Amino acid sequence: MAYRSKDEDTKKEVKREKKCRICIKDDTVDYKDVQSLTRFMNDRGKILPRRVTGLCAKHQKLASQAIKTARQMSLLANVDENIR
């Protein structure tokens, strides 16, 4: 029976520091810019979480509020048309 050493069992994970796209570019989130808002939504129209979008908490909140405002003004659809 062969035994494994602890070095084989543990793999070193390199943690990459995530940077907010909007903070780096010094950009703003606007409800009228539908093209940029669709980057923060999945194909069904749901708002993606921070761990997926890579935004900081401040800009994730602004992005979600902008998406909700655009939905109310009918600039964005609430549900994708292909689902219905």
From TrEMBL:
Domain of life: Bacteria
One term under GO cellular component: cytosolic small ribosomal subunit
Single GO MF annotation: small ribosomal subunit rRNA binding
Ribonucleoprotein keyword on record: yes
PROSITE patterns for the chain: RIBOSOMAL_S18
Signal peptide extent: none
One protein family per Pfam: Ribosomal_S18
Alphabetical UniProt keywords: Ribonucleoprotein, Ribosomal protein, RNA-binding, rRNA-binding
A GO BP annotation: translation
SUPFAM superfamilies attached to this UniProt entry: Ribosomal protein S18 (SSF46911)
Entry function: Binds as a heterodimer with protein bS6 to the central domain of the 16S rRNA, where it helps stabilize the platform of the 30S subunit.
Quaternary structure and partners: Part of the 30S ribosomal subunit. Forms a tight heterodimer with protein bS6.
Family that this chain belongs to: Belongs to the bacterial ribosomal protein bS18 family.
Protein name as catalogued: Small ribosomal subunit protein bS18
Gene: rpsR
